[in-house]
From TrEMBL:
InterPro entries according to UniProt: Gln_synth/guanido_kin_cat_dom (IPR014746), Gln_synth_cat_dom (IPR008146)
Keywords for the protein's UniProt record, in alphabetical order: Ligase
Molecular function per GO: glutamine synthetase activity
GO biological process, one term: glutamine biosynthetic process
Protein name: Glutamine synthetase family protein
GS catalytic domain residues: 109-445
Xref: SMART domains: Gln-synt_C
Family affiliation: Belongs to the glutamine synthetase family.
Keyword Ligase included in the entry's annotation: yes
Top-level taxonomy: Bacteria, Bacillati, Actinomycetota, Actinomycetes, Mycobacteriales
Organism: Gordonia aquimaris
Length: 445
């Protein structure tokens, strides 16, 4: 059990446990218990309706399906081994869904990721994942902050919000979130927090915990944190890039080999699997009704299904091994935004990479330029598919994807299709201004 686990005399300890899950719409949902109820939260768990999997990002609707309705009951069990301290009286733990008989619920994102990781392990593969979180600071009602001194990556951004920056770093350290760097980003009042690599489940847990820390610190300063893919229609978007390292028998797959930039054969297969599946994966990685406003060329969103060494406009960016990368080469998947369920997103990425290895997919040619500068004919000849900004097409592609269904399972994909389809159905003709305003704080904590 992590340090900070609740203890003391029953009935007198003021510690509260905050247990969270992330649902298919990317919403962080929670229950809290006093210290005396912590064992029950771990097993048998606390009751929750199946509709938790169908709560929509508009914070009003429920995307009912044949499998998800008002009948039935499930249990959320927190993982006490993953417990972390937020302050002297508040601890946090991630939860998973089980049915009343104790079997895992297939719509549960954390359980799905655990299953994919276990499947990797049975083939001798091991993954490490590092996350980048981009977000914007807003006023308490989501209003844009004055940013007259803001410059891209400028020191003025740090100094303007110096106390916020200090407290985020201090609170992340106290909570056990490994921060590699924290800096102003391109957009006004935009920041990026980079989290150290961990095993896939723990890494996804760290994203949820970091978002909670950011939200708590922002509140102390009368601010809010927007994790919308596009907080303001006239501003830049926010990504949630994932950096993936793969090893077999502790041998890295993305370096030390004879292939391009040192790729080993299995590493090349893994990248090929990611590129091949990227169009299908988009509904998992960037499927919200706001995501299409970011998924455009020139946004560093990885708007084309291709790969390239240090190519920030490719959906799959290979970061080569060398003195500047002491942890070795890794692959950054850029076509992810903060509206995604981080557990499902990681599971889909790892599953696609594993499929590329299993099928020995050949590595397509590297794209060495901004793919947006190529003509349509050049992209067609190079088999470079643009990712879509049409959310209805994205949802339909996900629904029809045998690849993603094989990775995540039909119940999980059906839940993702339901909540994203609800967004498209209920916000079909909204302008960029109304969409960004409506969903600006939808994924905030």
């Amino acid at each position: 059990m992590q340090s900070g686990a609740p203890g003391g005399t029953k009935g007198t300890d003021p510690t509260v446990l905050l247990g969270t899950i992330v649902n298919p719409a990317g919403l962080i949902l929670a229950k809290t218990v006093p210290q005396v109820r912590v064992p029950a939260f771990a097993s048998p768990g606390l009751g929750a309706s199946p509709t938790w999997h169908a709560f929509a990002a508009d914070q009003v609707g429920i995307a009912f399906t044949d499998a998800i309705g008002v009948v039935g009951d499930q249990r959320i069990r927190v993982d006490l081994e993953a417990m972390h301290t937020l302050d002297a009286t508040l601890v946090w733990a991630p939860g998973e869904f089980f049915d009343q008989a104790g079997a895992p619920v297939p719509q549960c994102a954390r359980g799905t990721l655990r299953r994919v990781v276990d499947s990797l392990g049975r083939t001798g593969l091991r993954a490490m994942v590092g996350h980048e979180l981009e977000f914007m600071l807003t006023g308490p009602e989501g209003q844009q902050l004055p940013a007259h001194l803001w410059a891209q990556y400028g020191a003025a951004g740090v100094l303007e919000h110096e106390q916020f920056v200090r407290e985020v770093l201090a609170d992340c350290h106290a909570a056990g979130v490994g921060v590699e760097q924290f800096h102003p980003e391109y957009g006004r009042s935009q920041f990026e927090l980079s989290i150290e690599p961990r095993d896939p489940v723990a890494a996804a847990d760290q994203v949820v915990l970091a978002r909670i820390v950011l939200g708590r610190v922002a509140r102390r300063h009368g601010l809010r944190v927007s994790f919308s893919p596009k907080p303001f229609a006239d501003g830049v978007g926010c990504g949630a890039h994932q950096h993936i390292s793969l090893m077999q028998d502790d041998q890295p797959l993305f370096s030390g080999g004879p292939g391009p930039t040192g790729l080993r054969a299995l590493g090349a297969n893994a990248i090929a699997g990611l590129v091949d599946a990227m169009v299908d994966l988009q509904g998992v990685l960037s499927g919200s009704v706001v995501s299409g406003l970011r998924m455009l060329p020139g946004q560093w969103a990885g708007a084309f299904a291709c790969w390239g060494v240090e190519n920030r406009e490719a959906a799959v960016r290979l970061i080569r091994s060398g003195p500047a990368t002491p942890r070795g080469a890794n692959v950054e998947v850029k076509a992810i935004d903060p509206s995604a369920n981080v557990y499902f997103a990681t599971a889909a990425i790892l599953g696609a990479a594993a499929l590329g290895i299993a099928l020995e997919m050949p590595l397509p040619p590297e794209v060495t330029v901004d793919p947006a500068t190529l003509t349509d004919q050049q992209r067609a000849e190079a088999d470079i598919a643009p990712l879509s900004a049409d959310q209805r097409a994205i949802v339909d592609t996900l629904d029809a994807s045998t690849t993603v269904r094989a990775i995540l399972g039909d119940p999980a994909v059906d839940a993702l299709v339901a909540v994203r389809g609800y967004e498209v159905d209920n916000f079909p003709d909204h302008t960029a201004d109304t969409l960004t305003e409506r969903f600006r704080l939808a994924w905030s904590v």
